[in-house]
Request: fold
Amino acid sequence: MIASRLHNGRSLILPGLAALVALAILIGLGTWQLQRKAWKEDLIAQIETRAYGEPGTILPEAEWPSWRADQDEFRKVRVTGTFLHQFEAPVYGLARGERQGAPIQGYYLITPLKLASGATVMVNRGFVPTDLRDPARRPESQPQGEVTVTGLVRAPEIRNPFTPNDEPARNQWFARDPQAMAAAHKLDRVAPFLIDADASPKPGGWPRGGQTPLTLPNSHLQYAVTWYGIALTLIGVFTAFAWRRLKGSGSVELKQEE
Reply:
């Protein structure tokens, strides 16, 4: 009987190791969701604190080298300058459509804004659908002379493994990266951040600003509870499996002795 139980106990080693690996993964996913929850709550707090109210001024150029997104992003600002439309950079992306919120393909127009000081800030002027990528099809969309832009400070877009490579020679862009765009056009004294223009009406209706999402979903606690719940279920299932196997071996031995 003892030998049989030892044998059955050894037969639980591989299932037990597999269960431990799965348990570690599930707990890791739950913990990661809690970390994401803290990050999301901090981001929501930043938006609520900075994105509303009267607009301020952008960070002075002397402080650009030490600019940090966690201290400045989503702040509402107003800036005046002259657009360099010859360097307009269309960045491929999706935007929510007018009908039933279905996403539509198109481009975000990133245009350098030359300040009176001689420095430059990249402005995301807004979204245009694919058929309006060519400026010739929206001639009213490029205001001349001095303009004032109100919008939100944004950090450069973070690339991921699925982001295609930009093709500056063809003016094809897939990430809102002000420094890469500045380098392609040999612009200097460029801010390390962008400004997402607000939804103020524009001649001809394009591009459409105000594309920064200010209401963010936060379901990370629910996801964390789900992963931890699956982990507890796994513990219960494996415990029942092991107990039945060990108990079953004992029952067989008793029947043989009878």
